[in-house]
Prior knowledge:
A: MetI-like fold, B: alpha+beta, Dipeptide-binding Protein, domain 1, Dipeptide-binding Protein, domain 3, 4-stranded antiparallel sheet
Amino acid sequence: MSNITSHDQSWRAWLMTDAPTSRRHARLANLYQGWLTLRGNSMAMFGLGILLALLLIALFAPLLSPHDPFTQSLSNRLQPLGSEGHLLGTDSLGRDILSRLIYGSRITLYIVALVALIAPVAGLLVGTVAGYAGGWTDTILMRITDIFLAFPRLVLALAFVAALGAGIENAVLAISLTAWPPYARIARAETLTIRSADYISAIRLQGAGALRIITKHIWPLCISSLIVRVTLDMAGIILAAAGLGFLGLGAQPPSPEWGAMISEGRRFILDHWWVATVPGLAIFTVSLAFNLLGDGLRDVLDPKDGSQ
Amino acid sequence: MNSLTRFMSSAALGVALAITAAPAAIAETPANMLVIANRIDDITTLDPAESFEFAGSDVSRNIYQKLVNFDPMNLEGGYQPEIAESWTVSDDGTTITFTIRDGLKFHSGNPVTAADVEFSLRRAVALNKTPAFILTQFGFTADNVGETIVADGNTVTIKTDKPYATSFVLNCLTSTIGGIVDMKTVMANEVDGDMGNEWLKTNSAGSGAYKLVNWKPNESVTLQSNPDFYLGAPEMERVIVRHVQESASQRLLLERGDIDIARDLNPEDVAGARDADGVKIHDELRGRLMYLAFNQKHPELSKPEVRQALKYLIDYEGMQNSFLNGQYTVHQNFLPRTFLGAVDENPFSLNVEKARELLKAAGVPEGLELTAGVREAQERTEIAQAYQNALAQVGIKLNIMVGTAKQILGEYRARNLDIYIGAWGPDYPDPHTNAGTFAYNPDNSDEANATGLLAWRNSWDTGGLTEKVAGAVVENDRDKRQMMYNDIQAEFRDTSPFAVMFQKIEQAGMRDNVQNVNLGGATTAVSYWPITK
Amino acid sequence: MAVSNTNAERRRAPLSSWVKQTFLTLGSVAVTMLGLLFVTFIIGRVMPIDPVLAIVGERASQSTYDAVYQQLGLDKPLLVQFLYYLWDVCRGDFGMSLLNARPVAEDIARVFPATMELATIGVFIGIVLGVPLGVVAAVNRGSWIDQIARVVALVGYSMPIFWLGLMGLLVFYGVLGWVGGPGRLDIFYEDIVPARTGMILLDSALAGEWSVFRNAFSHIVLPASLLGYYSLAYISRMTRSFMLEQLTAEYVTTARVKGLSERAVIWRHAFKNIRVQLITVIALSYANLLEGSVLTEIIFSWPGIGSYITTALLSADMNAVLGGTVVVGLIFICLNILSDLLYRVFDPRSK
Lengths: 308, 533, 351
């Protein structure tokens, strides 16, 4: 940080301004200041670091993993931690656990990314429409939301996967199905407060349609609370996916999904504890990272400090 | 809020105290009580006319007596007289007359009579529940039982539609559905003409060594000994079978002395428990087979060379010696060892080169993709993955579809799977039980819908084995019958789209003091009455 | 938070409309329940598991199969089946479990107390430890205590509970032998006390069978602590943020200026004001635990409603799934309404 160039200086000044010159300028300035706050939060940065590392590991999995994650060796099974050539040992079919762990990070990221795309968007749509339209639309949409909220979550996901067949894509859909209602609630609450704001009335008087108001003026304002919520939910999503994998309803063999790896390893728990422990630690680490980051983001984006 | 905080802190203290006061449970089960950990979530009913699952047979065998039955101390001896003191067979071989033993009593105190036997068998046919085929295959129907199953004085006569081998008929009567129920008690609990079916699902009315105290689904079955049992009161006065899902949990319970027998230990836990103090391992060959089946509707799988090749791609030895260690033994014939007609020839072994040649000769295209259905159970998914690995070596991509038993079974019965990886247990202790399903398929059309036949499920017309099987089942000369099964199996091994791989060895962990345990071998279920400790 | 939003609106409604509100609430509960039933019913029918096959097993003959098919009413149109079912449910009849031939209502009455016992102790641990932790963290915002509280909570959020359960069993039961193993009781303690409430701790205490009580306690302590930790994480975080809101409020400053002790400010003023919000949070986390922590119940062989519904689901026992889901859904909704009511009664702003 000591040798900041003048060019950087000016950028910094531009971003730190109290008098933004345009809407974009204001938004960028806000973002930058948020980033500065976040950077000051060492735990959040730690979480972010872990997630970046995970991303890199997933990206360079073929280079990083010492073995092929699918190669079996029945004569070399259940090797302990630190055995020759297998840092984290081998599983029941003699596959290298470290390599499986590394490749498994791709599956975890894939699930997280998909759910993070589907659930909040669905929730945002339902919530803003309900909140903005009011009346019967609101009642009906919110009743549907209630129905899904009243479902036991894992049971709903289980039922869904059981109905469609086990597999990663279906697991993602199932988790999204259980995850959207809270987003709809948040989006609706935000919409309700924004809807009656003076400036929205002003825009409406200018002749803007409902669609334009929702997409241009309401959505952007809901985003920040949604982002916080999504980040905090990520851990839950990973755990849910792992739970489905654990019950055999997520990724199918020989896929190295972490939850499925725990499930495979749990029958050796007494004599070969590492087979289940190592993927458990991996899940824990990643979901902790998401929680740390989410917690930090909440401090930045939600000044009320998370009373949601 | 002061009162609240005070309450909270005292409550917290209470919790802390209670935690430290919790006993470290090191225990021993009472001397007259046998406690068993087993997976019993497959029990759906305890009515002998309906019960058909493993754990249900275990319960039923100890509650209900049959006309003829196996002696747990001498399984090799085959069926022995039980409720039937003796029997005679008519010259044309279609009529068997049983003489009922005197002095037997049901748990209710009612005497066991020929009328009860008649009622029980007729009832099983009339209810027509899942296992009813074991009796109806002899031509009994709800309409004709009035003539075909008849009690007269202290005898009962049954009349079959063909002159079946007597051993075949009697073997079938030893299965659960042959259990004799107490007519008076059962009919007193009849609802809407169900012949007491609803009531018997959760109650018992037998004359065997034990009576049912209660069955809590997915939790436990409790049995109480019958002091008037005709072989003498059993030593174990109470038997509790508790559902424990996890092998590791069963092992911990066993090692800590909380249970006497653990029946679902996996190979690793068996190895671990063997070293524990006060624990021994009991091995017993059971009737269940693990097999692969190749659907003959698939254009590639129906080629004889491909069927052969696929059998050479199974690492029999490797699996037997690794993750199946001690619990399955290589066996490549459809009759389990110890069955009449069983053979011990296992010609196939892993041979990737040979398989590759065979596939080449058959002109199998590069990059063939197949889908295998397998039930969600550890050893099966591992077999599937090991097989997937072997097929990959010859360029075949195997997709594994894992599901619950019911899901996969639905696909299998609909002839939708390319490959099925599964297990088969004999329904009754006669060679026909397996021959009649693996190698028997009189109508291979989709319309036949013979979902009960494994050959039909895999669209296999059996290439002439159907007739041979039909011939073997009416052969009354024991030696000749045995030879016929030997021949059928030799041909089956070579040509069939089935790769029978392993036969089950049950490894039960038990406390050192438990004696005389018999789990039922390949032919029947567990017997609690001889057990001492 | 779901509940507080609706409260925000209701607070604006005049007191005179309470009766109308009550009717509306009841109406919406009915509609939600109906929707819940319908969705579950549809899921049950589109499952690729054949319920007939689930009952008769794979060796049944076609005639056996057909008989059961008709007996289940599967030959009737879907809507007719649903209406029949609805009619039965309204009379409190959940039908028979397809797989064990017992009335589903009886099964639920047996498994639900097990879950309730576990959840109650779990949430109790969560409250006893979580609330003070949250308050202390808020009061010492930014200090090391706050950081530790934060890490404790986040670790709780991040733990795969099935894995932690396995490890806990391994260490505390397998290696150390401090706690009881899977299940609710050691086998020879079973069937000693009569089931009055179905909650063994309560039953054994009522019967004065303290040996049974101790055994039951040794079994429940580990799974309950796990669930307790989980709800502790949630409760402590929420308590902290509620408290922060209060502590920065003007009246707190005023109270401090007036010279009230810090203790009094915190507990008599700030904490008093977050009670209601806290109740909502606790109700919610209790509801979550009551839904049956499926994975915890599976790991600990706990015969509760979560594992009951799951087992039923995987074996296509739709009556059991429907019954279980209805009961759980109803409880969830009721707890929400209850905390709603408490809000209205206690929240000073709504008066």
